Amino acid sequence: MTENVIVYKRDGQPAVSSRDVAEQFGKEHRNVIQSIKNLSAENSALTFMFIEDTYTAGTGKKYPMYYMNRDGFTLLAMGFTGKEALVWKLKYIQAFNMMEEKLKAQEIKAAMPVMDARMMEAQARLNNSRVDAAKLLMKLGDKAALQYQREDVYAYALHALIGTTPKNTERIESVSRFWLKK
């Protein structure tokens, strides 16, 4: 028996092999295979939990084996009893959890370029909106009759462009009531 649990990636999900389960729980592999066949025969809905495969023995002959996902392993291991079996069940649960976290991290990492592109697009739209707002304010400032009002509007346009809020908005708020040039 080895001390480590090996979890494989099969069909995009964590899985363990019937050979490893047999070794870890001290069972004959043919008996583990028979238990899996019995479970599948009892309920055909369980077939997605067990993926049939083969392995090549040292003699060159091919033999059947299964990969099982977390649910398949859980169903199979429920029948295993004893103190040693409990220790291995806990190790397998921990190994499944670790593999699932790894797979989720890979999915998130794969999605990052898409998210980065969307963020860049949103930032570009925001920048374009700021430029448009600044242009409108500059046009409005050009039409202001009084010099200090024009300067206030230009300052406000600059703040709109860089996305900040002026510290003193009192004079800018009064801009809504300023005189326009003819």
List the helices and strands and how they pair.
Blueprint: E1 8-10, E2 13-17, H1 18-24, H2 29-42, E3 50-56, E4 62-68, H3 70-77, H4 83-142, H5 147-162, H6 170-173
Antiparallel strand pairs: 1-2, 2-4, 3-4
Q: Would you summarize the structure shown here?
A:
The protein has six helices and four strands, in the order E-E-H-H-E-E-H-H-H-H. By secondary structure, the protein is of the alpha+beta class.
Report on this model:
By secondary structure, the chain is of the alpha+beta class. It has two domains: 8-111, no CATH class; 113-177, no CATH class. Helices cover 60% and strands 12% of the residues. It is built from six helices and four strands, in the order ββααββαααα. It has helices spanning 18-24, 29-42, 70-77, 83-142, 147-162, 170-173, and strands at 8-10, 13-17, 50-56, 62-68. The protein has a four-stranded antiparallel beta sheet with strand order 1-2-4-3. β1 and β2 (13-17) form a beta hairpin. The chain is rod-shaped. The N and C termini lie far apart (94 Å). The model has no long low-confidence stretch (mean pLDDT 82).
